[in-house]
Amino acid sequence: MKNLNREEVVNSLCRFFDSEIDLERQSEGRFIVSTPFTDESGDVIDVYLEELQSGEWILSDGGFVHQEVALLSGQTDPGAAIWRHVEELANEHDIRWGGGELWIPVIRHSDLGAALHHLATVVSKCIQVGKTQLHTPAVHFWEEVEIFFKDAGIPYQRNQQMQGISKVVHSLDFVLRNGQIHAVQAVASELSMRRSLNIFWDIVERNRQVVPVAFIDDSRKGYSNDTFKLLSYKAKVVLWDHRGEFADYWRSVMHDPA
After folding, report:
1. pLDDT at res. 47
2. HEC profile for the chain?
């Protein structure tokens, strides 16, 4: 597939899945494909259509599985058994595993549907494998956020759900009510930042009265500047070292709970 025709790609995928598929240009030679598949949290699985230096095109997960499985299992050593399992799952579906990404070459526009289905299937199976080896840190960041709410006297609800414009029901870390609904996510990794961004976008498009809030564990590294900028545009971002500012904000906007 030397030359990409965006309209032909979209039409091919829509016909294959009998579903609306979005293809968004991220940069030169790289597109984000919003698939009809979701993970166990109900979030859409995005993949990437990328042009190689050779002029050929591939579909990849953009490193999603590597980040997610490493986060779940605590395993970053490339020689660990879990990565051999990931590679075995990829081979079963003719997907390549290398450089921390799952990918598959695309020869013709007509190949895209089947390639996307295989890739999404492997992504889903790999995440399930990661969850079987769940690495549990001593304290989750959301627990620290919860303690902060208690200490600051901010009433909250845990494990609430909210439907987005896509009709997907999202699980939220916290919901705060003070005349407005504040949807709160505790963000401690690039992966959770991207997920929170997707969740906020979806629920705010359905209900613009919702105030999205992201508490960021700024003691951690590895956040993408681009993702952070997008999140800052969509939500009220609270760096953990400056959480006292949120308590001040809460007192300034305090109303009777809705």
Report:
1. 84
2. CCCCCHHHHHHHHHHHHCCCCEEEEEECCEEEEEEEEECCCCCEEEEEEEECCCCCEEEECCCHHHHHHHHHHCCCCCCCHHHHHHHHHHHHCCCEEECCEEEEEECCHHHHHHHHHHHHHHHHHHHHHHHHCCCCCCCCHHHHHHHHHHHHCCCCEEEEEEECCCCCEEEEEEEEECCCEEEEEEECCHHHHHHHHHHHHHHHHHCCCCEEEEEECCCCCCCCHHHHHHHHHHCEEEEHHHCHHHHHHHHHCCCCCC
pLDDT for position 256: 46
Is residue 26 pLDDT above 50, yes or no?
Answer: yes
Q: Considering only CA atoms, which of 64, 116, 63, 120 is closest in space to residue 89? A: 120
- Single-letter code of the amino acid located at 31: F
Percent of the chain residues past pLDDT 90, beyond the cut: 35
Alpha carbon of residue 203 to chain centroid:
14
